Amino acid sequence: MLDLHGLTRDEIRVQFSRWRLSPVHADRLWYHLYLRCAASFDAMDDLPARVRARLAAEATLGPPRVAREMHSSDGFTRKFLLALAGAGQPVVETVLMRFTGRVTACLSSQAGCAMGCVFCATGQMGFQRNLTAGEIVAQAVHVARALQPRRDDDPQSRLRNIVLMGMGEPLLNYDAVMRAVEIMRDTAGFALGSDRITLSTVGIVPGIIRLASEPRPVHLAVSLHAATQEERAALVPPARKWPLDELMRACRHYSERTGRRIFYEWTLIEGKNDRESDARAVGRLLKGTRAQVNLIPLNPTAGYGGAPAGREAARHFQKILADEFALPSTVRQRRGIDIAAGCGQLAGAAGV
Ligand code: SAH
Ligand code: SF4
Predict the structure, then answer these.
(1) 213 with 310, same domain?
(2) What CATH number is associated with residue 238?
(3) Are residues 88 and 129 in the same domain?
(4) For 284-304, what is each residue's pLDDT tens digit?
(5) Is 106 a catalytic residue?
(6) Could you tell me which of 84, 184, 207, 163 has the C-alpha nearest to residue 341?
(7) How far apart are the CA of 42 and the centre of ligand 1, in A?
(8) pLDDT in tens, 208-263
(9) Ligand 1 atom nearest to 115, measured from its CA
(10) Per the structure, how many domains does the chain have?
(11) Whose CA is nearest to atom 4 of ligand 2?
(12) 128 and 105, same structural domain?
């Protein structure tokens, strides 16, 4: 069976021509997939019955089964647990967030994660499997559908941004992730251009180098968390394989090649990496590069006991970066913590 959400518009056209069906119908299918976010072939009521019958016989159409949906008391965040097919019945989490009038979907790229970052619930659960491109796109479709009815005069009814910051390490599932990006960028569909998609990596050096010459560009966020090799390796085990100096070399290459600024994520843990000396160390590391630092006060997870940095410490950290190193930074708003939808809290079925 063909998974329609995993195919580009061109591939759907090629498939239609193999079936001796008109390209007009292929384009209509695309419209139903991404502008109407159709949940069934029957809902595609302007496609001739024979086209729908062919699709029903040979193709599948998400939507992933929603095992559970949760609404945060903050009124801005919803989390969906989506049940995937296959052994072990993997469950992934997708988060819908509203920030100042725009809607962002946080998508998962893997069920679980093999990287084992100590403070991350996904890392604490271990790795199940890579998602297919169709499973990644279907998460965005699910969020877009949850926003319906879509109204042109209401920007909040439209999916505007994608962050690949959910469960898993996207650069270890490179081909599926970039295929999903291509499908979501299509101007006749979601039309999410390069500025609307951000991918966050724990620091997979070969993936960053490959991304530097990617014809389907995205914003890049790199999880740094510490400014020395030793401290970083204690928080982020893959730093043993891809040490800090190699990572920074890859980041410089990426910036030079693309002209793009890199976002560096820094999970702020009280007493561990929120001190003045830490701010100066990251300042020295990034000074003169095109960088923005995203500070994320630690969110609670079952397997890690640290405490988040306080508001004052975060502000002080920012001030040092700005005043001494001219580095812009933001502090991530804490959202969806009551439903474990914050950064690093996604644990699939284990978190229910
Ligand atoms: N695997 C990718 C993307 C998913 S995690 C990566 O690691 O970058 C998204 C961000 O949340 C990362 O910067 C990660 O380090 C951070 N994070 C993980 N656990 C966290 C926690 N408990 N509190 C705050 N941020 C966390
Ligand atoms: Fe994986 Fe990212 Fe969590 Fe690390 S922080 S375990 S790389 S999802």
Answers:
(1) yes
(2) 3.20.20.70
(3) yes
(4) 999 989 999 999 999 999 999
(5) no
(6) 163
(7) 40
(8) 999 999 999 999 999 999 999 999 999 999 999 999 999 999 999 999 999 999 99
(9) 1
(10) 2
(11) 117
(12) yes
Q: Is 93 marked active-site?
A: yes
Measured in Å, residue 121 CA sits from the centre of ligand 1 at: 9
* Distance of CA 343 from the midpoint of ligand 1 (Å): 5
Same domain assignment for residues 228 and 132: yes
Q: What share of the chain is helix, strand, coil (3-state, %, to 5)?
A: 40, 20, 40
Q: What percent of the chain has pLDDT over 70?
A: 98
Same domain, yes or no, for 30 and 114?
A: no
Instruction: Work out the angle at residue 25's Cα, subtended by the Cα atoms of residues 12 and 134, and round it to the nearest 5 degrees.
Output: 30
State the residue range of the domain holding 317. Answer: 65-339
d(CA 5, CA 143): 14
The CA distances from residue 327 to 135, 228, 260, 264, 273, in Å, are: 37, 18, 15, 11, 17
Q: Which of 122, 200, 222, 292 to mutate to test the pocket of ligand 1 (most atoms within 8 A of CB)?
A: 200
120 CA from centroid of ligand 1 (Å): 6
351 located within any domain: no
Catalytic entry in 37, 93, 113, 120: 93
Contact 157, 151 (CB under 8 A): yes
206 shares a domain with 333:
yes
Does residue 101 sit in the same domain as residue 223? yes
Which H or E run includes 252? helix 244-258
Q: How far is the C-alpha of 196 from the C-alpha of 213, rounded, in Å?
A: 18
* Atom of ligand 1 at shortest range from CA of 236: 15
Q: List pLDDT tens digits, range 32-86.
A: 999 999 999 999 999 999 999 999 999 998 767 888 999 999 888 999 999 998 8
CATH code of 50's domain: 1.10.150.530
Q: Tell the residue nearest (CA) to atom 1 of ligand 1.
A: 169
Atom of ligand 2 nearest to the CA of 167: 8
Atom of ligand 2 nearest to the CA of 123: 6
Instruction: Report the greatest alpha carbon distance in the chain.
Output: 68
Contact 250, 222 (CB under 8 A): no
Q: Tell whether 34 and 100 lie within a shared domain.
A: no
Asked whether residue 135 is domain-assigned, the answer is: yes
